[in-house]
Design goal:
This is Cytochrome P450 4f3-like protein. It comes from Lateolabrax maculatus (Spotted sea bass). By secondary structure, this protein is of the alpha+beta class. It has 18 helices and 12 strands. The chain has a domain at about 130-395 and about 455-530: Cytochrome P450 (Cytochrome p450, Orthogonal Bundle). The strands form 4 sheets. It has a 5-stranded mixed beta sheet with strand order 1-2-8-5-3. Strands 4-12-9 form a 3-stranded antiparallel beta sheet. Helix 9 (about 220-240) packs across helix 11 and helix 14 packs across helix 16 (about 380-395). The longest helix has about 45 residues, at about 5-50. It is globular and about 85 Å long. The relative contact order is 0.14. It binds protoporphyrin IX containing FE (HEM). The site of protoporphyrin IX containing FE has 22 residues, from helix 14 and helix 18.
Length: about 525
């Protein structure tokens, strides 16, 4: 090749490259332009369709209420203001991406929560980030897939199964109380509740779901640490809008930590399910070689493994793993939050605390051991009223979101267009002054059956309501009663001091995350009562 030819071919190849880049650039520009136009048209369409709802002041026509929703005490006070001002609902949008209707009044909440599951969809804004962890599980799936799973999983929450768990709730609570006794003996009476109670609910859930004794209350467990890490990272991701896109998130430090914790959690559930499948498929005569399997009462994994639909089909191993992961997530933080806030409310109301304690002491009279049995749970009416009032005042889940595959009619001729996100505010409904007298007061007598008559349906929805309500609510209420009853038998509670805030006893700043927590923790003072 002559020098001239070489130079020519070089120039041509550069020109070719430039031309390719130009074409690619133009193509990319066209795609971005088309995407932007589509986004803006969609934005205009939703803005128009949602004009039947009042719209609180927005930052701009394009960014809307982006950055105005806060997961803090101020965020909850903002909901109180919205409820005061707009009474039933208002529209809200987060940039041109997400269009929401926020709903606070039971009359508006009811048609949405009671809608058939076939037209109800879980939206990606809240639930999408859970998918890598939970897969297509009950909490996230929709339509026919959801309904088959709900049918297959319902037997796992039957009374006959739940009964067996009460002994496990007692054991996990006893372990926690042993730790508390140890702390009190060394003079540490001001105790942060969430740390202790979360480990306790994880401990009991691991026993109920997998018959797995993790000892996580006494020594650290890799699996439990990974669950806590995943829950924290989900909240962090929700709050950073750029992290909502997978292709950005998986490259961040948080995304990498998420993947690492995920592999620990998934490995654990995979191994449990595979081992149990192998055990269950053993021929009957050899089962005697496994006395452990015979002695053990059935846990969630057993029930789900044996569950079959109308066509005799069960769930695959992957599906069972997804459900087991979901129970662990949906069951531990929520129940821990409910327990902590109930103890907090009783610590602030000595009279109610004493009345509950008396009720439990009457129940235990003549017994030589403090053990709450399944049959005892219905003999704690006042304690149950206090638990329900606490679930109203400090509901663990603040809101649920839904989308619908068709337009949804609401009172006063308002319509939620299909595809818009409905953010049903459990907090707003539970603090609605038109529904509850003195909504910010702790008053368990509201739940006295004698006073319940006037209560609006759908005014009390801590477990949501309708077809997609909480499948674990009876499990949670049983655990709550056992933990609260045993705690009051053994300890007197008074408001504690948050050492970080240096606040006065009982003062807290609520922290709505995946569940309702308290900034810097929830601190109580414990005084040990006489031993059993
Ligand atoms: C006090 C404790 C609890 C509270 C306040 C609570 C609250 C809720 C709420 C509000 C929902 C509706 C979520 C939504 O629509 O997006 C829900 C669903 C669910 N909960 Fe619970 N929950 C609690 C305990 C539990 C427990 C102990 C379990 C399991 C062991 C559990 C498992 C589930 C599952 C699987 C769903 C999805 C149900 C479905 O879509 O069919 N929950 N829970």
């Amino acid at each position: 090749m002559s020098l001239l030819q070489g130079v020519l071919s070089q120039v041509l190849s550069w020109t070719g490259l430039c031309q390719v880049l130009l074409v690619v650039g133009k193509g990319l520009g066209a795609v971005v332009a088309a995407w932007t136009v589509k986004l803006l048209v969609r934005h205009a369409w939703y803005t128009h369709r949602l004009s039947c709802f009042s719209k609180p002041h927005a930052n701009s026509w394009l960014l809307g209420h982006l950055g105005q929703m806060q997961s803090t005490e101020e965020g909850l006070l903002q909901v109180d203001d919205l409820v005061q001002k707009y009474t039933h609902s208002c529209s809200w949008f987060l940039g041109p991406f997400y269009h929401l209707v926020r709903l606070f009044h039971p009359d508006y909440v009811k048609p949405l929560l009671m809608a058939p599951a076939s037209i109800t969809m879980k939206d990606e804004l809240i639930y999408g980030h859970l998918r890598p962890w939970l897969g297509q599980s009950l909490l996230i799936s929709n339509g026919e897939e959801w309904s088959r799973k709900r049918r297959l999983l319902t037997p796992a929450f039957h009374f006959d199964i739940l009964k067996n768990y009460v002994a496990k709730f007692n054991t996990s609570t006893n372990t926690m109380h042993d730790k508390w006794r140890g702390l009190v003996a060394t003079g540490q009476t001001n105790i942060e509740m969430f740390d202790h109670v979360t480990l306790m609910t994880l401990d009991s859930l691991l026993q109920c779901a997998f018959s797995y004794n993790s000892n996580c209350q006494q020594s650290s467990s890799e699996y439990v640490l990974a669950i806590v890490e995943l829950s924290d990272l989900i909240i962090d991701r929700r709050q950073k809008i750029l992290h909502h896109w997978d292709w950005i998130y998986w490259k961040t430090q948080q995304g990498k930590r998420f993947k690492k914790a995920l592999s620990i959690v998934h490995r654990f559930t995979r191994e449990v399910v595979q081992k149990r499948r192998a055990l269950i498929s053993q021929p009957r005569e050899t089962e005697t070689d496994f006395p452990e399997a015979q002695k053990r009462k059935k846990d969630f994994v057993d029930i789900i493994l044996l569950s079959k639909d109308e066509d005799g089909q069960g769930l695959t191993d992957e599906e069972i793993q997804a459900e087991a992961n979901t129970f662990m997530l949906a069951g531990h933080d929520t129940t821990a939050s409910a327990i902590c806030w109930t103890l907090y409310n009783l610590a602030r109301h000595e009279d109610y605390q004493e009345k509950c304690r008396q009720e439990v002491m009457d129940l235990m009279e003549g017994r030589d051991k403090h053990q709450i049995e399944w049959e005892d749970l219905s003999s704690l009416p006042f304690t149950t009223m206090c638990i329900r009032e606490s679930l109203r005042l400090h509901s663990p889940v603040q809101a649920v979101t839904r989308k619908y595959t068709q337009d949804m009619a609401l009172p006063e001729d308002r319509t939620v267009p299909k595809g818009a996100i409905c953010l049903v505010s459990i907090y707003g409904t539970h603090h609605h002054p038109a529904v509850w007298t003195d909504p910010h007061e702790f008053n368990p007598l509201r739940f006295d059956p004698a006073n319940a008559e006037g209560q609006a349906p759908h005014a009390f929805i801590p477990f949501s309501s309708g077809p997609r309500n909480c499948i674990g609510q009876k499990f949670a209420l049983a655990e709550l009663r056992v933990v609260v009853a045993l705690t009051l038998l053994r300890f007197r509670l008074t408001p504690g001091v948050n050492p970080e805030l240096g606040s006065s006893p009982g003062e807290v700043r609520r922290l709505p995350q995946l569940v309702l927590r308290a900034e810097g923790g929830l601190w109580l003072q414990l005084e040990k009562l006489q031993d059993e």
